[in-house]
Amino acid sequence: MNTLLHSDVGLFLLRQNFDQESDWRSDNCYKFVFSVGGATNYQTNRQEMTMSQHQFLMFNPSEDHKQIAVDHSKFLVELDRQMLNELSSSIYNQPFEVQFASLVQFTNPVSQWTQFIIRHLKVLEDEPLMVKQSFLDHNLTSLSIILLNNAVSSHIPDINLSHYNVFNAPISKTLTALKDDYKSNWTLEDMAKVANLSKYQFAHVFKELIGISPYSWLQVYRLVRSQQLLKYTNLTILEIALECGFSSVNVYNRLFNMLYGKSPGHFRKIVR
């Protein structure tokens, strides 16, 4: 099934037969890319990222990126910049523009939404274009709300873990433990003990489900918690880095730049 639909709030593309792209892009919209099956590989000017099945990436407006390879269907949604930020303002009451983190992510609500769309577009295949566009308008707004509430971004005060227990109870237990004690100096062996798995099995299962390594997730969570301190306190960047469990301010700065393309100091100027 090859489908391309436009609406007032975005664009939807599902394509099974396509040429691999190699050109850099920079669009004035938010871009959601979902891996339907197999590996999907993208690159930004800061890093290269590979998604497995049911994982996704978000690209911010004017963010340079390019597709390197897609093993299966290409599932892509472009979301209107103004629409998404108006929704964000109504949910979080924060005046600055949303910035999604540049990393591979998985959340069950996003996966469920995507599978729902694929099923229903098959049902609507012979319906008039107006019917399909109406369906798209409603559901792209729903996707925007799901992403604002679940994807790692500049607006969230925490990471929602409620859906992980459905997929893997040991990993969910470990994520909760990491959240509760994120400032500690965790080792892979410590994490694996919480999950009651060998550290090699734990590392494999964790990355397969979450999309990044256990330690990378912990660092991302520390960064998410740091965002609140950047917004609402006068602590220095060094104090915030150490308060959130980073080994040094240099490590904190590098991760912040990799995920958002800006330093913590620049981020603080934008959000205050």
Automatic annotation (TrEMBL):
Which segments constitute the HTH araC/xylS-type domain?
172-270
Matching SUPFAM superfamilies: Homeodomain-like
Q: Which Gene Ontology terms cover its molecular function? A: DNA-binding transcription factor activity; sequence-specific DNA binding
Q: Does the keyword Transcription apply?
A: yes
**Superkingdom field:** Bacteria
Q: Which InterPro entries match?
A: Homeodomain-like_sf (IPR009057), HTH_AraC (IPR018060), HTH_AraC-typ_CS (IPR018062)
Pfam families, per this entry?
A: HTH_18 (PF12833)
Q: Keywords in alphabetical order, please.
A: DNA-binding, Transcription, Transcription regulation
Keyword Transcription regulation attributed: yes
Q: What's the protein here called?
A: AraC family transcriptional regulator
**Organism field:** Alkalibacillus haloalkaliphilus
What high-level taxonomic lineage is stated for the organism? Answer: Bacteria, Bacillati, Bacillota, Bacilli, Bacillales
